[in-house]
Amino acid sequence: MAAGQRIVIENCSIATVDAHDTEYADGYVVIAGNRIESLGAGRAPEGLEDVVRRIDATGHLVTPGLVNTHHHYYQWITRGLATDHNLFNWLVALYPTWARIDEPMVYAAAQGSLAMMARGGVTTAMDHHYVYPKDSGDLSGAIIRAARETGVRFTLARGSMDRSEKDGGLPPDFAVETLEGALAATEATVAEHHDASFDAMTQVAVAPCSPFSVSTELLRQGAELARRLGVRLHTHGSETVEEEQFCKELFGTGPTDYFESTGWLGEDVWMAHCVHMNDSDIAAFARTGTGVAHCPSSNARLAAGIARVPDMLAAGVPVGLGVDGTASNESGELHTELRNALLINRLGAHREAALNARQALRLGTYGGAQVLGRAEQIGSLEPGKLADLVLWKLDTLAHASIADPVTALVLGAAAPVTASFVNGRQIVEDNRLLRVDEDAIARATRAEARRLAEIAGR
Is residue 1's pLDDT more than 70? Predict the structure, then answer.
């Protein structure tokens, strides 16, 4: 939408997810250009100029767009495999297949992953891509192109691995990069694609894969590179009991202490999973401002355990939600993680007091924005912030008897997305993507999944 033009959304419930959790039972939102200009109770102000569209949102809840903080798009074309494995066995089973991906496969997989998330209310997405086989093409460029075409705001966490089987790691020897090659390629990706502006649509983070697939030197030099370039850092941490044992055997310390020794705690860092964290670990994350991407469905699928999210939040740790790769969360949708985060955490020590519906919504919106370092721009509905928002339809049979709209969204059936806006531009209408062809994407991902299976000899 052109600067100065306005869209007015009226007659809706609104959950702003601002610092005071302000909500309006019947309110309006005015979008001007790519920003939220105003919002409040009742009707929109009279006399607004250059209004190009008015939306009657009766029966809808308007929220900030969902923010996904951890994913692996390439896994879209290996869904439904190794369904009864724990993390390490699952990785060993799938790495030989993943090591044979190429640019067309990664592009199609990114299209499928992004389409599924965007249809379900995600307006800011990320991808932690760390498998770069030799001569496989421009994988980072393919992922970024798919995100641009879908219309979502995007962070590429440019991953890497240099610890293969011969060095005591899990990936096959032919699936990893050299230390020097990984660092050089990561720096080149930042130089080509990272945008540091307020309304940036594409950003890049430095993201060695995990303690058991990268060398200590790659972690250390990766952190130094990120801080020299002024970008964020991302990796997997404390996902399983086996990972903790691996770190103690190899490094003589637990994951959190190991990360701190390599420069991997800080306000510019976020880690995926963080399931097996003791009180000292949580205190270290809180002290340093290190963020967490909580992935409840994947953690359950791989039997990793229940992350101590209530304790993290109480300590002041920034926490967002992640889909994780679709080979460990086949649905590939973030809005289901709102519900799963609440339910799974209630199975933990805090039981019914673990999380409530509004805390779950905050994890999926403002919490995610914090974790990605973008809380000043997105994650809540406030004047001056970017116009990334979703209209959830809550007046159908599925939610008819739930009076509270936030409870309906989080605990009810998956709510249809009537409209989704990113940077003031609509990308979803009536649960269908506007900028890409969903049916063509489905055909492409099926074809690439078959091609990969044939190459890998499955």
Answer: no
CA proximity to 19, closest of 365, 404, 413 = 365
| pLDDT confidence band for 202 (50 / 70 / 90) | very high
- Least Cα distance to 170 among 241, 103, 243 occurs for 243
> What is the C-alpha separation between 317 and 371, in angstroms, rounded?
10
For the entire predicted model, the pTM comes to 0.97
Alpha-carbon span 117 to 427, nearest angstrom: 12
**pLDDT tens-digit series, residues 39-91:** 999 999 999 999 999 999 999 999 999 999 999 999 999 999 999 999 989 98
Contact status, residue 1 vs residue 31, Cβ threshold 8 Å: yes
384 CB contacts (<8 Å, ≥6 apart)? 35, 36
* pLDDT tens by residue, 182-196: 999 999 999 999 999
Of residues 66, 6, 15, the one with CA closest to residue 36:
6
Please name the residues in contact with 48: beta carbons below 8 A apart, sequence gap of 6 or more: 6, 8, 30
Total count of residues recorded for the chain: 458
Q: Is the dihedral of CA 193, 164, 162, 236 positive or negative?
A: positive
- Give the span between the Cα atoms of 304 and 86, in whole angstroms: 7
- Alpha-carbon distance 456 to 91, whole Å? 15
Q: How far apart are CA 258 and CA 266, in angstroms?
A: 14
SS3 375: coil
Q: Return d(Cα 271, Cα 286) in angstroms, integer.
A: 13
